[in-house]
Design a protein that fits this description.
- The structure is a single chain.
- Helices cover about 30% and strands about 30% of the residues.
- It has 5 helices and 9 strands; from the N terminus they run βββααβαβαββββα.
- It starts with 16 loop residues before the first strand and ends with a helix.
- It has one domain: Glutaredoxin.
- A 5-stranded mixed β-sheet has the order 5-4-3-8-9.
Length: about 160
C-alpha cells in the first residue's frame, strides 16, 4: 500500500483543521504564503519519533530563515503533544488527529505489519508544501537520521 496513494508532487495540499498543542487550532490556511514542512509520525515519546522531533527542533531557526514552518502530526491527543513538547523542550507546532481524517486525506494511515501481526498505523512521511499550497516534495517511509537536514536542503531549493 502506497503512503500517498492519491497525492503527488504538484497536487494541491488537502486542507485541514485540527486541534493543536497549547489549545490552539491549526489549519492549512495558517501557513499560507510560506513553505510548510508537514511531518507525520506514529507516536509521541517513542524513540524514532522523539529523535525526529529533536532533529527538526534543532534546525527550526534554519527552517524559519528559509521561510518554512514545521508541523508535526500524529494520532496522539493534544495533552500527549503538550507533555511530549515539555519533556523534550520542543518548540515546534504539533496537531492532534485522533479521528485520523487528515492522516487518511494525506494517505499516511496505512496497514502495517510487525511480527506477522497486521494493524493500522501512521507511515512516517514528510511533505513539503510550497507557499502556494502545492506539494513540492514527498518523503515516504522516512528513515529518521539526517532526515530533517535533507528536508531543510529541499526547502532552501524551493
Amino acid at each position: 500500500m502506497s503512503a500517498t496513494p492519491s497525492l503527488a508532487q504538484g497536487d494541491k495540499a488537502p486542507d485541514f483543521s485540527l486541534p493543536g498543542d497549547g489549545g490552539r487550532t491549526l489549519s492549512l490556511a495558517d501557513f499560507a504564503g510560506k513553505a510548510l514542512v508537514l511531518y507525520f509520525y506514529p507516536k509521541d515519546d517513542t524513540s524514532g519519533c522523539t529523535q525526529e522531533a529533536i532533529e527538526f527542533n534543532a534546525l527550526r531557526a534554519d527552517f524559519a530563515e528559509a521561510g518554512a514552518a514545521i508541523l508535526g502530526v500524529s494520532p496522539d491527543s493534544v495533552r500527549s503533544h503538550d507533555k511530549f513538547k515539555a519533556k523534550h523542550g520542543l518548540d515546534l507546532a504539533f496537531a492532534a488527529d485522533e479521528e485520523k481524517t487528515m492522516l487518511q486525506a494525506y494517505g499516511v494511515w496505512v496497514e502495517k505489519s510487525m511480527y506477522g501481526r497486521k494493524y493500522m498505523g501512521v507511515e512516517r512521511t514528510t511533505l513539503l508544501i510550497d507557499p502556494a499550497g502545492r506539494i513540492a516534495r514527498i518523503w515516504s517511509k522516512v528513515k529518521v537520521p539526517g532526515h530533517a537536514a535533507e528536508v531543510l536542503a529541499a526547502v532552501k531549493a524551493l
